[in-house]
Specification:
By secondary structure, this protein is of the alpha+beta class. It folds into two domains: 2-170, no CATH class; 181-200 and 246-409, no CATH class. Helix content is 43%, strand content 21%. It contains 13 helices and 16 strands. The chain has helices at residues 15-44, 55-68, 70-73, 77-95, 205-208, 210-222, 228-262, 273-279, 281-290, 292-305, 350-364, 375-378, 404-409, and strands spanning 2-12, 114-117, 123-124, 128-131, 135-140, 148-157, 160-170, 181-186, 190-194, 199-201, 265-270, 309-314, 338-340, 347-349, 384-387, 400-403. The chain has a seven-stranded antiparallel sheet. Strands 10-9-8-11-12 form a five-stranded mixed sheet, with helices on both faces. Strand 13 and strand 14 form a beta hairpin. Helix 6 packs antiparallel against helix 7 (228-262). The longest helix has 35 residues, at 228-262. The chain is globular, with a radius of gyration of 25 Å. It starts with a strand and ends with a helix.
């Protein structure tokens, strides 16, 4: 089995190297906007005259453009071509309705990366990274590389620089694991509630930094536009946001690693998080602070490495369904934390009960093996209909379970 793994290292460019990297960022931002404008012009023509340039066409025109603009020719050619390829991929995702239309890159906000593809264009000697037209970059190598290095990308994160190296690894096919099985219900107050009875309270890193962020943002608003003091105040705001982001990433990495290491199959609810954020502004900040999408992505690839799988099941009415008798009633959800079934009197924590319902739904689809569902859970008033779908690369065991209530809202 072959897969790609990324390694991220902190690099410390010299003052001259940093000035040149910032100049490259500005040049690549210009190239992105120019190529994007060229594609917009092609789409704005009449239908019979419409011509949409491809990445191959724009790369061929890049040679003439670099000969006219000396500051653009200073950028490594491989970095310019890689930028045009990324723009073409973004348009293809848009045409396939997987993402929105590519946007313009704004100065100081959308920072393009400098990518060198191919091991012949850059070098890694174990201590330093040699990048084309920059020379050696002092780096902190905190772990060794694995596999065959393919690409090296330099990216600025505020006032810090990082090198991301992607390696190709030939990994033996892992032994497929189906046990133990756990279902996870994601929430805002409790970020995790699983079917094994585990509750983890959301750390709320962004909420904890609100006072400091507000103070730093007020400081920015008081400074004169274009002044150096305003730039310094912006850096303080950026550092606070970066700290919150890193705290969240560290927490989610540890949590996902724990579940991937100790479980063969993890069941989660299938949610449209983007729509939930747009429609429910009150919970939007808590949902984004919890990092639901990022946690699911981490679980997916970590389970794939260990031979496990991630199963997604519909989440409709999971908070109103009793895990003991299957009765569905909105009044059973007494409060944010208490679930008391109006039919059988079963009492449990609301998040734990929802996780057990999700596990039951995945079990009904035939993914978790036979004989793992309690007989009480089979006596539901709303029967489940299983729709088998072709296995995907990301989740070979993924299936879709639709209830009668789901069909009503589709």
């Amino acid at each position: 089995m072959r897969f790609y793994k990324g390694f991220r290292f902190r690099v410390y460019p010299t003052r001259l190297q940093e000035m040149r990297l910032i100049a490259w960022e500005n040049a690549l931002r210009f190239l992105w906007n120019l190529a994007l404008d060229q594609r917009h012009i092609g789409l704005s023509r009449p239908r019979d005259e419409r011509r949409f340039p491809t990445a191959f066409d724009q790369i061929n025109e890049l040679t003439e453009l670099r000969s006219e603009l000396s500051w653009l020719s200073d950028v490594p050619h491989c970095a310019s071509t890689q930028l045009l390829i990324e723009l073409d991929k973004a348009w293809q995702r848009c045409f396939n309705k997987l993402a929105s239309e590519p946007q313009w890159k704004r100065k100081g906000i959308d920072l393009p990366s400098v990518c060198a593809s191919g091991p012949k264009r850059w070098r890694f000697d174990g201590e330093n990274i040699r990048f084309p037209k920059l020379g050696n970059l002092r780096a902190v190598i905190h772990r060794p590389l694995e596999g065959k290095p393919k690409t090296c990308t330099l990216k600025r994160d505020g006032d810090q620089w990082f090198a991301s190296i992607v390696c190709e690894i030939d990994f033996p096919e892992p032994i497929t694991r189906t046990e133990p099985v756990v279902a996870i219900d994601r929430g805002v107050t409790n970020i995790i509630g699983d079917s094994d009875g585990r509750l983890i309270q959301s750390p709320r890193f962004y909420e904890a930094a609100q006072r400091r962020l507000a103070r730093a943002q007020r400081s920015v608003s008081r400074k004169k536009k274009g002044s150096k003091n305003r730039d310094k105040a912006k850096v303080r705001v950026m550092r606070l946001h970066r700290k919150v982001r890193r705290q969240r990433e560290h927490f989610l990495h540890g949590l996902s690693h724990d579940y991937a290491k100790n479980h063969g199959v993890v069941v989660i609810e299938k949610l449209r998080i983007t729509s939930m954020v747009k429609m429910n502004r009150g919970l939007a900040r808590g949902i984004l602070d919890a990092g639901w999408s990022r946690f699911a992505a981490m679980l997916r690839y970590k389970l794939a490495w260990s031979g496990g799988s991630l199963v997604e099941v519909p989440a409709a009415y999971s908070s109103q369904t009793c895990s003991a008798c299957g009765h569905v009633d909105a009044e059973s959800r007494c409060s944010q934390n208490v679930f008391r079934c109006t039919a059988c009197g079963y009492i449990d924590h609301a998040d734990l009960n929802a996780a057990k319902v999700l596990k039951s739904r995945a079990n009904r689809s035939g993914l978790l093996g036979e004989g793992t569902v309690p007989e009480a859970a089979l006596r539901t008033k709303k029967r489940l209909r299983v729709v088998k779908s072709a296995p995907s690369k990301s989740s070979p065991l993924e299936a879709k379970v639709i209830t009668a209530a789901d069909r009503c809202i589709l």
